[in-house]
Amino acid sequence: DGYLWPRLTPHLCSCSPPPAAVPPALGMEVMAPATINALNGTSVKLSCTFNSCYKVENKQFSLNWTYQECKNCSEELFLQFRTKIMNKQLDRFGNRVEFTGNPTKYDVSFTLNNVQLEDEGTYNCYVLNPPDRQRGHASISLKVLTKEPPKRDSTVAVIVGASVGGFLAVVILVLMVVKCVRRKKQQRLNTDDQKTEEEGKTDGEGNPDEGTK
């Protein structure tokens, strides 16, 4: 296709084929969590890493971090790597953006300090590492919380456990009551039968005496 590779020694991995071009399916992959929750006023790391079959060369490697306030809003560039890190000081972030990744280790994460409610939105991570011809992309949805969420194992689990335990206790109690009622009823029937039997015997013993008289 006329594409000429730069003269460099690629860091080949198992996914790298010998032909001159790398098919898109075998190109670079960028990975980031879909959603990150951050507490208002704290610092949060927006993690973004990538896989590449080639060693990172600063002169050719490029990185862009952009911010979107809403789904259909335009993207705002606030952090860029071109041979070195360059922060685009947007008014919304000021100097709160700190690059905490290491491209040579396939990590392009950054930390957002003193998180504000207005920082909610989508953060896009774009990575290009030639000779990979495909630019990788991942998105993170940042949610800013005003208070810490409740622990998973506390209230709900206790309520559910208590409800289930209480229900089972009621069921067991009802079964015991029913069983006791049936047992008492059976005992009464047995007692009545026994009395009837005894009365029958008494009557049977009295008849001969009366006949003798």
UniProtKB/TrEMBL annotation:
Membrane topology: Single-pass type I membrane protein
CC annotations in GO: plasma membrane
Residue spans crossing the bilayer: 156-178
Keywords on record: Disulfide bond, Glycoprotein, Immunoglobulin domain, Membrane, Signal, Transmembrane, Transmembrane helix
Main location: membrane
UniProt region (Disordered), positions on chain: 186-213
Matches recorded under InterPro entries: Ig-like_dom, Ig-like_dom_sf, Ig-like_fold, Ig_sub, Ig_V-set, Myelin_P0-rel
Limits of the Ig-like domain: 18-141
Compositional bias per record (Basic and acidic residues), positions renumbered to this chain: 190-213
Gene, per the UniProt record: Scn2b
Name of this protein: SCN2B protein
Cellular localization per UniProt: Membrane
